[in-house]
Amino acid sequence: MNIFIFHQSSEFLASLSEIIGFEIEAKIQTSTYFNELELSLEIESFELVIIEHTRSNNSLIQTLFKKNKPKCFTLFVSSKPSLLKDNQTALSNESMLIDSTFGPQFVIESILDCLKKIMIGPEAQSFIPVSVTRLYLANELPCAVYYKNGDNYSIYLSKEEKISLEDYFLNSNNNLYSLYIKEENKELFFQKSNQSSKQFTAKDITLIGQISLKKTMETLSRRKEFDAKSLKMAKEISQSIINNISHDGQLREGLIESLLNLNYINMHSTLLVIFMTILFQKDESLGQENLEKLSYAAILHDLLINDEDLAKIDKLDKKTIKELKPEEVTKVLSHPTKLASIIAESEIVSKDVSIIIRTHHERFDGSGFPKRISWSEMNKLSRIFILTHEMVDEFINKMNQQETLEAITQKLYHKYEGIGDLERTSSLYKDYFKRTS
Ligand SMILES: [Fe+2]
Ligand SMILES: [Fe+2]
User: Fold this and answer.
1) CA 374, CA 371: separation in Å to the nearest integer?
2) What's the CA-to-centroid distance between 32 and ligand 1, angstroms?
3) Which of 73, 157, 190, 201 is placed for a possible disulfide with 161 were both Cys, Cβ 3.0 to 4.6 Å?
4) Rounded Cα distance, 269 and 343, in Å
5) Quick one: how many helices (H) and strands (E) in the chain?
6) Is the pLDDT of residue 36 over 60?
7) How far apart are the C-alpha atoms of 418 and 422, rounded to whole Å?
8) Does residue 83 sit in the same domain as residue 160?
9) How far is the CA of 315 from the centre of ligand 2 (A)?
């Protein structure tokens, strides 16, 4: 961690540096001459700046922070609390004022307290990621929330603070996406967000969709295989579907749950839409209307499975069933039919989407569930969906091993060679990724 400390007393600087250095591993730069510092100090390169705030350096501080809005934490030591008032707007929220009239010991203790609170080494504590929508639901936060700052975690919101989705969305442009809580607060935090009485409006759901899509698309655009046009098109289709579903009384709750999961469930739904978009561009006979139906199915199909591990189950064989609790087996087994029935009643979603969802766990050889139907009993859209889902799962599983989509689609093509439109669909994917890999 890089820390800068300014204080007029070199004695104070020495003892503070020593104490900080003892508590945490940090590179500490100090100065007693604030005037000379103005030009050379690049505030942004420090994670923590501690400045003794006096009447004589007040205007310098104002200039410095107006010029370089510090991303880092700033901590002011001052015997004149009123001085800071004028500067407050120019500073980051994390700035802190310590009243030095209580003596040097108090100042040092306060600084150490802040250090522990705002900068905690990754080894010292374990953190778990949380989604912003959960923060929103938790409303008044039961614990502090952190973001990753290099190798450290820094406070993003303190206990009892509230976040508006608009605020978060604005901040998310500054890479403040991944938010964390301390593992020890996990139960408390999830309890609070689960019991929330907060209601999402259609506008909120649209915004959550924007955040989650932006994040997923950014991850995927780092992979070179996808062309920008397909990503953009898939993003637009997904957003418009999310906007439409936000008005469906039956489906909106599940959609929020699904968007809350910034992990497998969410990622694989978005990937499905991207692959459908690619297919649509390769195969004119698919048509805009079918692309839309497939994309609706992509976003909705696992809506009733709000558990990442259960969502990953693609076969319910004896071994898998043995590993699950009976209620989990029921949940997995029933989710296609249950959701299909809800969608069949929906005035917003087409009935054809309900058929795709009903069959999304069937397999071409009849080994799927719940009806064990085979290839010839499914309609064309169901077949495209199942094949694409297989490809997406393979892609996500192999993501860390960097297996290329070219290799994955090659394998899939060989598997389905000679089986009517399965051969055709897999060959279109194979051609696309051969071109882009
Ligand atoms: Fe599923
Ligand atoms: Fe799925």
Assistant:
1) 9
2) 63
3) 157
4) 17
5) 20, 10
6) no
7) 8
8) no
9) 12
Distance 383 CA to ligand 1 centre (A): 15
How far away, in angstroms, is 264 Cα from ligand 1 center?
Answer: 12
In the structure, ligand 1 is a single-atom ion and the residues with CB under 5 Å from it are: 302
Question: In this structure, are residues 360 and 332 in contact, taking their beta carbons and an 8 Å threshold?
Answer: no
Separation CA 425–CA 427 (nearest Å): 5
* Rounded distance from Cα 101 to ligand 2 centre (Å): 61
Query: Does 171 lie in the same domain as 206?
Result: no
User: Are residue 183 and residue 318 in the same domain, yes or no?
Assistant: no
* Residues by chain with Cβ below 5 Å of ion ligand 2: 302
Looking at the predicted structure, is the pLDDT value of residue 235 above 70? yes
Q: Which residue has the tokens 């994917």?
A: 429
Separation of CA 335 and ligand 1 centre (Å): 7
Residue 294 or residue 207, greater confidence: 294
Q: 159-191: per-residue pLDDT in tens?
A: 888 877 776 666 655 444 567 888 889 889 988
Res 122: pLDDT:
46
Tokens 């949940």 found at: 331
Average pLDDT score over residue span 58-85: 63
Question: How many Å lie between the centroid of ligand 2 and the Cα of residue 358?
Answer: 12
User: In which domain, by residue range, is 139 found?
Assistant: 127-194
Q: What is the pLDDT of residue 368?
A: 93
Half-sphere exposure of 279 (CA within 13 A, CB side): 29
Q: Are residues 294 and 360 in the same domain?
A: yes
CATH number for the domain that contains residue 343: 1.10.3210
Query: How many angstroms does the Cα of residue 358 sit away from the middle of ligand 1?
Result: 9
**Ligand at shortest distance from the CA of 389:** 2
224 CA distance to ligand 2 centroid (A)? Answer: 24
Residues in the chain: 437
Ligand 1 mean position, distance from CA 346 (Å): 19
Give residue 82's pLDDT.
60
Contact (Cβ atoms closer than 8 angstroms) between residue 145 and residue 155: yes
Those residues whose C-beta lies under 8 Å from the C-beta of residue 83, and which sit 6 or more positions away, are 53, 54, 55, 58
DSSP state of 242: H
Three-class secondary structure of residue 118 per DSSP: helix
User: Is residue 103 domain-shared with residue 169, that is, in the same domain?
Assistant: no
pLDDT, tens only, 334-355: 999 999 999 999 999 999 999 9
Please give the Cα distance from 38 to 59 (Å, whole number).
11
Per-residue model confidence (pLDDT) at position 357: 97
Let me know whether 311 and 432 are in one domain.
Answer: yes
